[in-house]
Amino acid sequence: MTSRIGSPDTQADLDVRACLDRMPPRSFVMVAGAGSGKTTSLIKAMAHLAETRGPALRRAGQQIACITYTEVAVGEISADVGASPLFHISTIHSFLWSVIRPFHSDIAAWVAIRIDEKIAERRAHYDKPRTQAKTKARLEQEIADLEADLAAISEVEKFVYGTGSSYAEGILGHDDILKLTPACVAAHPLLRQLVAKRFPYIFVDESQDTNPEVVEALRHIAGEHPGLCVGFFGDPMQKIYMSGVGTVPLNDGWAEITKPENFRCPTSVLGVINAIRAPGDGLEQVRGRTITVDGIEQPVAGTSNLFILPADAERSARLAAIRQWLAAETGDGLWLSDVREGDVRLLVLVHRMAANRLGFPNLYAALNDRAPMSLSEGLSDGTAWPLRPLVQHILPLVVAAQAGDRFTVISTLRSECPRLEPARLRGQATAPVLTALQQALDGLVGLLAAGSQATIRDVLTHVRDNELLRLDDRFAMHLVAEPVDDGSSGFENVQAYLACGVDELWAYRRYFTEESPFATHHGVKGAQFERVLVVIDDEEAGFRQYSYGKYLGYVPLSDKDEANLAAGEESVLDRTRRLFYVCCSRATKDLAVVAFVPDVAAARTAIVAQNLFPEAVIRGAEHLG
Ligand SMILES: Nc1ncnc2c1ncn2[C@@H]1O[C@H](COP(=O)(O)OP(=O)(O)OP(=O)(O)O)[C@@H](O)[C@H]1O
């Protein structure tokens, strides 16, 4: 991606600058549609501050904070604004942790309350009349462990932030950080003062998917400290996670800034996304992507097509045929490319279609079918807790070991291996520890080697037994000889996941690291691609909160949906519309949508009636030859 700093100024950029240049600065919320250049405006605001306030901020030891959604986005923004200690660009978790980390006693006090809550939850479960004896025994054990954790907190010298919480060792997990920091901000005026002093400018990108507690904490600080300028950049129509705030409420005196243009999508795609958005909030974008030819700026027409095809066993072959058709129709052979540079993305709602094709159908089914939302949503981006240690540490560690990359191996073990913690090493000879770790690592590499018959359970058991990496507490009850279903949500899913072969894990990784053109509807937030093919397949999806069939009108609404609509509550139609809007608005050249449906004729009638795509571009199997 080319640097966005050089993009021409829009009125919104001038409005932002007016807010930043005021004394004291004015906080603002920028709300604008897809491709309107919100991230671009954020980057330009950072560059403007660096130019106008850089030296003063540096002298005062202050930083400009930018909070964004993924590590990929952190990298892209850093590349745009340039590496400088003036900028603190991070994900929400790292930002919150950097704020709270020095406050040891507040963290300890909060952790004690959190453990008390967990004990109370278990006592309540224990006291339920239908709780079985086996479950009671486990709950007793857990309560005893938590009480031991509670007693151990006073011994913790320093809390750290890791993937899974282990309170007695002083480790806090992702979910803890999201709760801990807003709670401490609400309780301690001094903390609010320190945040305002350290970061006089705090910008939040993709603010619609930021947790309401975090938004509230920032509004609270800004309300008390007029010198602090908070800027939110978001689009409520692009909220795709249940935990997101959606619309950010304005404090008194804050500016609301909008951008009417779309700079990303060609005209044919812009027409479609405006039509998708119309029943949502009615916002209609103008302009569209342009290119300059011989010094003259011209609109890019691009293409948009919608295929309605039978949901039969031929889906993969039909996808290939659509790509052939698009390549011929647009005269663009890259539609057939499977490599990253081809800039083709096939967007699937969930992974099943990709999973079947790429070789992880069981892993997919385990964490998706009848799974709690935290698992199924986390499957789309690798954040489901059972996947996290493997995706984040174990597989990268094995890849590094296989490639002889000692540096990555050592640094991963240094940060994640409990046996290398300074407290554990104290008074021990290091050499035998390292030898034992090397053996354990060799064993791990063997378990994950090509052709290995090992299961994910074997891998995690090996990691736990050899203390190679710290594992999430939640694995404990699963990694025993006879796991007991205590009725906790997702128990069966995790068991099925642990039984999957390691080959599926590698296939999932190929998918997850984008070594295939597949991506999920959720995973492409904030990104853009020249060629986008959105795959709609409710039969394969199994996601209850979305239904393209209901949204496009070829599956009837349930009584509950009707009741939600009548009550003005958020409905399956709202959620699906937002997701569809995000997907279709990623295209910078060609957009194609394929709906695999049970009854093509009925679906066609329903879809045509929605008026989202011009009728002339709604096609069927007859076009594919
Ligand atoms: N002022 C501008 N002039 C020309 N092109 C621009 C301008 N602002 C942004 N763009 C281009 O428009 C595209 C979309 O920009 P950007 O990613 O910042 O939008 P966004 O509003 O954050 O998108 P989304 O909400 O859909 O993720 C990029 O290719 C960017 O380079």
From TrEMBL:
Annotated keywords: ATP-binding, Helicase, Hydrolase, Nucleotide-binding
Segments forming domain UvrD-like helicase ATP-binding: 11-279
Positions that bind ATP: 32-39
GO molecular function, one term: 3'-5' DNA helicase activity
One GO BP: recombinational repair
Cleaved signal peptide residues: none
Protein name: DNA 3'-5' helicase II
Organism for this UniProt entry: Alicycliphilus denitrificans (strain DSM 14773 / CIP 107495 / K601)
